[in-house]
């Protein structure tokens, strides 16, 4: 009597590489497109120049009071200062955003390799995580500086306009400079948190012992 052969147990294949691979591909594409738009915007502003961004005179030389002319001149000065400040920061930010754009490509490639279960995807995505935390947070910090610079010049001008409109009878109902500072701080906090979430998840995930063992001896890895 022949003994029927035993059926081998089904091979267990982990499914986390598919999930993280798709996430990496999607965020890599969006990260590349966003940073590319930032680089294009910085190049456009640099080619136009700060002086070209200043609005033309709206009061003209006739039919305007001395107070209106002084207000318009102060607004033009504030606008020029703001654009000059943004242009100075933009000289650094254009390179930083270029680095973020390259990181988007790296994340996209790493996601494809992870989806196909190549072990090399791990060092690629870990390298992306460290790079994103450094270069990405640097980009967020520079953006916050641009917002604060905008508040320092235009916010003060808007405060003066509000005070002038109210007849200078008292302090303005709200401080525009302070509002811009708060906006910059809120952007810095939430921007940094949003940017750091995925890199931190990857750093924790790939350093788990069970994930290391899966990538070494698990089924389907190349």
In brief:
The chain is mostly helical and 222 residues long. The chain is built from 5 helices and no strands.
Rounded to the nearest angstrom, the distance between the terminal CA atoms is 42 Å
Mean pLDDT: 78
Over all CA atoms, what is the radius of gyration? 27 Å
Query: What is the string of helix and strand elements?
Result: HHHHH
Low-pLDDT residue spans? none
Instruction: Give a quick account of the main beta sheet: strands, pairing sense, barrel closure.
Output: none
What is the overall number of helices? 5
Question: How many extended strands?
Answer: 0
Q: Tell me roughly what share of residues is in helical segments.
A: over 70%
Shape: elongated
Structural class: mainly alpha
Question: Which percent band covers the strand fraction?
Answer: under 5%
Question: Mind sketching the topology for me?
Answer:
Elements: H1 16-48, H2 66-115, H3 121-165, H4 176-206, H5 209-217
Helix pairs in contact: 1-2, 2-3, 3-4
